[in-house]
Design goal:
This protein starts with a helix and ends in a 7-residue tail after the last strand. A hairpin with a 5-residue loop joins strand 3 and strand 4. A 6-stranded mixed beta sheet has the order 8-9-10-7-1-11. Strands 12-15-14-13-16-17 form a 6-stranded antiparallel barrel. Helix content is about 25%, strand content about 35%. The longest helix is centred in the N-terminal third of the chain and has 13 residues. The chain is built from 10 helices and 17 strands.
Length: about 350
């Protein structure tokens, strides 16, 4: 059952989301950045200690294998990604290591990931860190760029804090050894955060307009269709697998793709459409719903879905089949709820 208290924590206070079920892959070795540079869509070689970026791993045809959030700690690159693709990505990265000084390890089972999100997230995290002797203040944390990261220690054990914005504007991941999960989680609660379950986090994720691989993106998706190019793709780096397709669409096709992921707003009182529900425009089917929730902030259902490129303009009215009944929806600017 949806918890209004948990939702208010994410929107007005601080919510604790256990994200330890996500996949985590660690790369070590002096060639790790240069090695990933030729495989991922973003400028990995430009990363310095304490920075990070969002990127995609593509096929030669420009289709997505996975998306991932990577941080350079100075000793490793840590990537977190969706659980179903983690083993495949780790194997894929290992496959192309030849003479490079690179080691790829799937550390999903040994590393925990606790997310703290909401307007008070920096205050809560700074309290936890201060108790362990970290000099990072709430102001320091708030000033970190997205995917910037800093080292800290939990009872002498190495840990990392990473700035995130997946569920809204202000959030942090605490990466720690799995054996310390319970202790750090309790410290976060004691500092003022409220436990938030996956269903509530999903509502905020959709309100923030963030697509997720496996729901809103799949192996047939070109990143440009999902609208993630500004975050995931560098237009100034050298070659990477799949680049030819991306550049062809951007330069020759002027960025036009056959379909685009858009936000859709439905009327209050209408049932939330199921993923896979058809989207229709005039007299034909033009797309499919990928994610949908009831937004407490807007008081109505909202959804993400792909539509034909002729229907992507905000304000365009379309029809969504909800329990086999056509319901009006309006293409809407993302995010639905301002961060």
């Amino acid at each position: 059952m949806f918890s209004p208290e948990q939702y208010r924590a994410l929107r007005d206070g601080a919510g604790l989301v256990n994200r330890s079920d996500r996949g985590r892959v660690r790369l070590t070795g002096r060639d790790r950045r240069d090695y990933l540079q030729g495989l991922l869509t973003n400028d990995i070689a430009a990363l310095s200690t304490g920075s990070g970026c969002y990127a995609c791993l593509l096929t030669a045809q420009g289709r997505m294998i996975a998306d991932m959030y990577g941080v350079e700690t100075g000793e490793t690159i840590l990537m977190d990604l969706e659980p179903p693709v983690t083993a495949r990505v780790a194997s894929h990265l290992e496959q192309f290591v030849f003479s490079e000084d690179v080691e790829v390890d799937d550390v999903s089972g040994s590393m925990a990931q606790l997310g703290v999100f909401g307007p008070r997230a920096a205050d809560v995290v700074s309290r936890v860190l201060a108790e362990q002797g970290s000099p990072l203040t709430a102001t320091d944390l708030e000033g970190m760029a997205v995917l910037a990261n800093r080292a800290w220690a939990w009872r002498g054990a190495a840990a990392t804090v990473v700035r995130r914005d997946d569920l809204g504007d202000l959030g942090f991941d605490l990466l720690i050894d799995m054996q310390h999960l319970a202790g750090v989680a309790q410290a976060v609660r004691d500092a003022g955060a409220v436990d938030v379950d996956a269903a509530v986090a999903e509502v905020c994720r959709v309100e923030s307009g963030r697509p997720v691989f496996g729901k809103d993106m799949a192996e047939n998706t070109i990143p440009l269709e999902a609208g993630i190019e500004d975050r995931a793709i560098s237009l100034t780096k050298g070659c990477y697998v799949g680049q030819e397709i991306i550049i062809r669409v951007l330069h020759r096709g002027h960025g036009r793709v056959a379909r685009r992921l858009v936000g859709l707003t439905l009327d209050p009182g209408v049932a939330v459409p199921a993923p896979g529900s058809a989207i229709r425009g005039s007299d034909r089917e033009i797309g499919t719903i990928t994610s949908a929730v009831l937004s407490p902030s807007l008081g109505r259902p909202i959804a993400l879905g792909y539509v034909h490129r002729d229907f992507v303009e905000p304000g365009t009215a379309v029809l969504v089949l909800v329990t086999d009944q056509p319901v009006t929806a309006v293409v809407t600017h993302l995010p639905f709820v301002a961060n």
